[in-house]
Amino acid sequence: MTDHLTLLGTAMNKRPEQLLGVCKRSLKGKLLPRLPVNVDRRYERRTPENPTAVVEPIRENTAELQRSTASRRETFRERANDAADGTLTFLNESVEFPDGDRVSLSPERLEEQSLHWKLKCWGFEHLKPVWLGYTDPKALSGDQRRIHRRWLDEWINAHPIAAEPGYLRREWMPHAVCLRIWNWSRYDATFGEGLSPDFRRDIRRFVYKNAAFLSDNVEYGVGGNHLIENGAALVIAGVYLDEDRWRRQGRQILERAASNQFFDDGGHVERSPMYHAIVCQRYLSAHSLLSTVGEPSGEISRCALESARFLQRLRPPDDRIPLLNDSVFGEALALTECLAYARAVGVSDGSSGTEIGRMDGSGFYWLGGGDDRMLVAAHEITVPHLPAHAHAHPGHVCLWIDGQRVLTDTGVYEYAAGPRRQHARSARSHNTVQVGRTEPARMASSFWLWGRLGPTVSFAETDGTLEFSYSVDGIGRPTYRHDRKITHESRVWTVGDRVDSNGKPVTSRLHVHPAFDARMANDRVRIEDTQAEPVLSVAPSGHERVSVETAPYYPEYGRERPRDVIVLRHSQSEPLWVQFESSTE
User: Fold this and answer.
1) Hey, which residues does 89 pair with through a beta bridge?
2) 531: Cβ–Cβ under 8 A, 6 or more apart, which residues?
3) Domain boundary at 194, 214, 229, which?
4) Is 560 contained in some domain?
């Protein structure tokens, strides 16, 4: 019943173009493979026999990305060599293929992998470490080029469009198509001088076919970061193959998204720092490519600038993204790499003259400064029509001491529905309160979420005080109100919670980074480093029971680490108080 309610609520919040897009995708995916029409042959006929490519703008932009990620060049080369030897690793999960030449089919080898993993394989993400790791066109060996050629040939022969029902949710899912366009166009631009004429022709025909298909199947039904990915891929395809219609279509998608997918503070509406870095990179690339070919877009350039400035404002003392909502390390460009890329393409990263304390549109606020800072997620639980990557963490706090993250978020293990996915999105996995055993929003499956909090926020930077209030009232959940007040003075943060829970017990949790241990010490909890040196003291007040338990931490896809969690339980209506100090007395 709850799953049906959540699905209904999620669907009701979708915009008309999203619902229409879902209907069109479902009909196409089911009907076209059953019609007496060879869809793949139609796209083959639309593809020129020998398309002309304009590689210089792509080569210049790729070089800017290579310079921005230069510190990882050896790692990229190792991953590229592994792929050539037949081992592909995505989401920290490796699969071995015979001779490295059947990496895109081999259904018996991919059968146990998640859709997320398969999309990366189908998107030729194993080419990314090749064009990021090698800057010299002559650096690839003849064997590597032959293996890459076999990858392409195998795909062309084994994956016709609309060969079976559901193709739009599988190997021809537009998101995978976008990745193929990015990876093969950059591959040709980087190594084309060392490739045979036939290989270059086949790459260009392949990109052309994929771009034509993408142009007809833009993900309006999904929206969000997927739609931005579509627009950016059409821009690069239009530049690479000198097709004005694709450049124009991609530009229109990105310009519209710039106006309706970003808050006034420059943050992306899905409120995931990881996805923000991904869409920021796409806007930076589109800005660079369009400017190079003499077709700059003021709206795209503005969005690239403001999204980079937002990333700078969100930048923690340890220079790694906060893992808020669906975020992990290692998926997007690293925060410092993305800002370096912004500088490389001529976009300021906003490192000077920009307030770092508040991001009102996104609902993120910093308390403190320098290496000792607290980040508060004081925002609505989700944008109603884009709930897929939202977590239930109202008023969630993260804390850095001496530049190290001490109180952490949770991250994401996987996107497949299951206990890990449910746990990662839940209030119990964040540094906030939970009433009873329920959640402040209804969650089901992998991406369904329904519920609104109607938060009010008051933030005074001058005296370091933030007040956050919201109410929960809905079907299948207890009605309650939560008021959280956080104050900061010197190196002391005080978090106060008043919860009108209608008699339900209240639990507050503080998740400690795995690098530290939490220990009970009389009426306090000491957080210590590996040398048993104190880092933080937690002094709770008004709780009936305080304990240190264990909870999972998912800093990367497919990686789970245990960590201590301080659990404070209370069954009364009086305020709950927690005070953090930077050191133990």
Assistant:
1) 94
2) none
3) 194
4) yes
